[in-house]
């Protein structure tokens, strides 16, 4: 399923399949973010947000993805990175 969705950083936690529509809860497998400026990773998570991706088509079905995004703060450059 992960390969089909082409989202390697998301792990499908459950899958309820119906004939017409699929609702797929996911969670990120990332535990740290990556800053391209400092070329190093940071594990300082500052926020989690619920996100939903709708209207994806997968194998002819309508698919909704639910997952939480994590935002990381890089202490080196002070920027915020969103890890999917
Ligand atoms: Zn940085």
Task: Label this structure with key terms.
84 residues; mainly beta; elongated
What does this structure look like?
This protein has 84 residues and is mainly β. It has one domain. It contains 1 helix and 8 strands. Strands 1, 2, 3, 6, 7 and 8 form a 6-stranded mixed sheet that branches. It is elongated and about 50 Å long. It starts with a helix and ends with a strand. It binds zinc ion. Residues 35, 37-38, 74, 76-77, 79 line the site of zinc ion.
H and E string: HEEEEEEEE
Radius of gyration: 15 Å
**pLDDT averaged residue by residue:** 72
| Fraction of residues in β-strands | over 45%
Q: Are any ligands bound, and if so which?
A: zinc ion
Q: Fraction of residues in helices?
A: under 10%
Classification by helices and strands:
mainly beta
Outline the low-pLDDT stretches. none
Number of domains: 1
Shape: elongated
**End-to-end C-alpha gap:** 17 Å
DSSP helical segment count: 1
User: How is the biggest beta sheet arranged?
Assistant: 6 strands, mixed
Number of strands: 8
Compile the SSE list and pairings.
Blueprint: H1 2-5, E1 10-12, E2 16-17, E3 21-28, E4 33-35, E5 40-42, E6 45-58, E7 61-73, E8 80-83
Residues 35, 37-38, 74, 76-77, 79 line the site of zinc ion.
Brief sketch in words of this structure:
This protein has 84 residues and is mostly beta strands. It has one helix spanning 2-5; strands at residues 10-12, 16-17, 21-28, 33-35, 40-42, 45-58, 61-73, 80-83. It has one domain (2-83).
């Amino acid at each position: 399923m992960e390969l089909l969705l082409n989202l390697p950083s998301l792990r499908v936690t459950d899958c309820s399949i119906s004939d017409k529509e699929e609702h797929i809860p996911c969670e990120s497998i990332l535990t740290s973010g990556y800053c391209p400026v400092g070329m190093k990773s940071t594990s300082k998570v500052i926020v989690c947000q619920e996100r939903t991706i709708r209207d994806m088509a997968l194998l002819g079905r309508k698919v909704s993805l639910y997952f939480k995004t994590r935002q990381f703060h890089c202490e080196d450059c002070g920027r915020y990175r969103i890890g999917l």
